[in-house]
Amino acid sequence: MDLETIFTSATVATAVATLAQFILRKIFSNTFDTFSKKKIEAYKHDLSLFSEKQKFEYQRWTTDFNLYTQKKHEAYSELYRLILIADGALQQLVGFREVPSFEEYDRKDMENYLKGYQVVGGHIPTLLDCWEQNRDACIEKTREYLIKIDFQKAEQERQKAKNFYVIHTLYLSETVEKLVSEILSKLVRQFVMDRQMIVKHYSRDDYPEQSKEIIEKKNELLGQLKHEMRKELSVGYYEQQSL
User: Fold this and answer.
1) Into how many domains does the chain fold?
2) Secondary structure of the chain: what % helix, strand, coil (to 5)?
């Protein structure tokens, strides 16, 4: 074999090797590109699904939070209103009371007044049974009975506030829940003491300091409740809670 033949054979071998290497490289490149594209497409698909799921979860969380916040606002507003009504109904039973003198009333006027006061119809004749014989004694008996009715109404208002509080505890913070519980407890104690003094004719001297302390503490708690509710219903409160 001469030198030219050897050179030619080497050249051909090199060319074949180069071509083979190029072909293998191309095949590998195409295979890798196809594999990479499939992986990328799969990743994009998974990312899209995850993104949609997160979007749905966020929308659901936002909806739930907005509904809860709305319910909380409504609960706080109504609860505070009911507590003030219950407190006012009790406060108006002591001190100066505006009631008719009944001096110009006849029996029919008294019957109409008592009906308007929501006195049970069947009890009205019992209250007015001595109208002709002793008008003043009849009026005094009626006044005492109306005071009892007022205490019943005050207790009903307190019970309304308590029932609303119990039903809506889910929407109350621990601080508000504790304050309301203490206020309702103070209203009960004030009710009992005022009822004993007014209805049962106990002397206010029997409970001077204790009654004063109850009222002062109750008013202090009402102020704290108002401040706490305002704070919790403000936008800044929710921003701080989310930090």
Assistant:
1) 1
2) 85, 0, 15
